[in-house]
């Protein structure tokens, strides 16, 4: 077990910077769970059909079976830890988004720690370019994928899929993940379209040729394609760092949650069903969440979690002196983060005070509309 640090000494500052702000980001995965939960609360004569239809949309991954017993202890104290990944796979409908080569990677990763009582949470975003010591993993074909020192964090998903991503996070943190939820490009886009778009306000222009998004300052209602462009944008922010993109993602998901709350789902059973249908098609959960009933239980456990009580940080990192396109965990800061979560304490401000993830240019670019 490690704290995510490496033997390479990170530089305090570099030419690239990102700020992992304190925005609210429970994530599209929680929107999915809530959609299914509210749907079932409506009841009605068609409930059995609804269960069968939506259950058929879900394809779970048996993380527990794949990882076996070589994992951190399963602490039963009322807390909950969830790994949420945004997959950048270009398979199937995602092929339109292209890639220069390589397989799917975890383009976005966040670890959600829900404290006992489920009224507060901390969220730790892990930059995809973070260099970590990746452990040996069970491969998709049943074999073993050898570990690697100073591997990019997002290669864990690429070489070993969801189970390897979970194994890597558990090795870094010493914290067992209770759940895993993955959402891909097309699922995210469809979810936003089903909501009728998401309203955001940009405080500075965005013009990113790579994500195909151009927005002047002002208020906009983004459709699914534009929303996907926004959360993929980084080239037009400051030095183009992936760290800056995390800020946009945090702000957008906050706006997404506000949009879900405003669409009047209870007044439109059809809208509610269509959203739940789209949402359950959009995710790949662990096998303990691959039914509507399980999602209801999951969402019910989060019903008292107000976004004002969610603290969001970026894993404390510094630019790699050998490669400014990579970041290294700051050992002292990372230890503070994982210790706080293991002990169900708030993450101290001192954990991130020297982090490059707190100095970027994505913050303040987007606000909820």
Any key phrases for this structure?
single chain; 369 residues; alpha+beta; six-stranded mixed sheet; three-stranded antiparallel sheet; 33% helix; globular
List the secondary-structure elements in sequence, H or E: HHHEEEEEEEHEHEEEEHHHEHEEEHE
The strands making up the biggest β-sheet line up spatially as 13-8-1-2-3-14
- Helix content estimate: 25-40%
The shape is globular
Mean pLDDT: 80
Number of E-state strands: 17
Structural class: alpha+beta
Q: Calculate Rg over CA atoms.
A: 19 Å
Number of helices: 10
Largest sheet: 6 strands, mixed
Calculate the terminal CA-CA distance, rounded to whole Å.
43 Å
What proportion strand? Answer: 15-25%
Low-confidence stretches: 12-27, 90-102
